[in-house]
Specification:
9 strands; about 130 residues; globular; mainly beta; four-stranded antiparallel β-sheet
């Protein structure tokens, strides 16, 4: 089993992923997000058809606007996939859901709202 979470440490936010061995948490690499001084939220995990772990996350850009990113675990490090996935500047992307099936790549759906950005940080929604 794998788990992803956001932790606050030293004034920053770090997105972590670990595997549960049944008795201990084994970290998968270091923090996944680009910049711990910016917001990161809503981590979601899926397994793609080739058996590799994929992580989606909402991470703020330099202006504080959330953007949707994907990363793939290659067995030793997280590799960011080209992105962000946001393609329409007038839409605020705040959540992603992924589903995988053996032999296929994960499908990604997202929650969205028209800008302006709401004053409160968007919730991740149901898991």
């Amino acid at each position: 089993m794998h788990v992803a979470w956001v932790e606050t440490r030293g004034g920053g936010r770090l997105l972590r992923v670990a595997r549960w061995s049944g008795s201990e948490r084994i970290p998968l690499g270091s923090a996944v997000n680009f910049d711990p001084t910016r917001g990161v939220r809503c981590p979601r995990l899926a397994v793609e058809g080739e058996g590799k772990l994929v992580l989606s996350r909402s991470e703020d850009d330099a202006a504080g606007v959330p953007q949707l990113w994907l990363a793939r675990w290659d067995g030793s490090t997280w590799i960011d996939l080209p992105g962000p996935l946001d393609t329409e500047p007038s839409v605020l992307v705040y959540d992603a859901q992924m589903a995988g099936q053996p032999g296929y790549r994960p499908a990604v759906s997202r929650g969205a709202a028209r800008r302006p950005i709401p004053p409160a940080e968007p919730a991740c929604g149901p898991s």
